[in-house]
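Side project, low priority. Logging it here so it doesn't get lost.
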Amino acid sequence: MTVVVLICLIFTGAGFYFFKVACVPGHKSFLSSSSKVLKKSDPLYKQKKWFKQVDKEKWYMQSADDKYRLDANYIPSKNSHKTAIILPGYMNVKEDMGKYDALFHELGYNTLTPDPRAQGKSQGKYIGYGWVEKADIKKWINRVLAKNGPNQQIVVFGVSMGGATTMMVSGLQLPKQVKAFVEDCGYTSVKDEIEHEAGVLYNMPAFPRFPLVEILSGINRVKVGYFLKDGSSINQLHKNHRPMLFIHGGNDTFVPTKMVYRNYRATKGPKQLWIAPKSKHAHSYEDHPAAYKAHVSQFLAQYIK
């Protein structure tokens, strides 16, 4: 009996450790730090320089559950009736998305780029992997319409966790002004991604990955409000009938490329898929800037005039 109790305590302790690693904001050793120094050799130098210099409006909003103050950059494009809502990835901040702000500005869009809760300057205790944040994005959509009027046409765009958030948002009841989605390298579900990372980062075999992930899921349910399997991009895509462009790096090992095919099959609306040749996770734009812009522009031009 003592041995059973000891094993349970060890697994529970490990579950709390991995919850802190995965879901509590802070430094993550498994994430590569990106240099803030802008170099002319950068293939997206022009876009990043534009973002540094452009005037940005500060927008603030209470989260959908009214617990936290959220922070966003809004960059207007003169007299535009189009707005792109740009969603950062895991532990990224709105400034990391400046190259995408520039891309959509070049295409004639206003851009609204919020820090997800618990990231950047937005308040929050835990990272919700898009499942919690999806309700915040719906509220940001309504904020854009209240500010810019009912004639706005809205695109939701995201990368990595932001891509998963985009897919999760697509399954909500949304205003008719949301015309399309673009997701770049989002995962199939929170549970799938955490199980994948347990294998990649910790070389964890099927046991003890099970039951550790299940314990982590239970802790997440108590602290964040949902079981990991419930945070499903695929289930939300089953409810989506709006157009969506799927982008994924052909050599993505962080969110494995195979996930995009399941996501692509799940959506019910018009869709296109582009696999960026040889690109690693979230590198498709910098590896193929002209092709990336062309795919986004040509897809959206079909649905937004």
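Brief comment: The longest helix spans residues 2-23.
Revisit when time allows.
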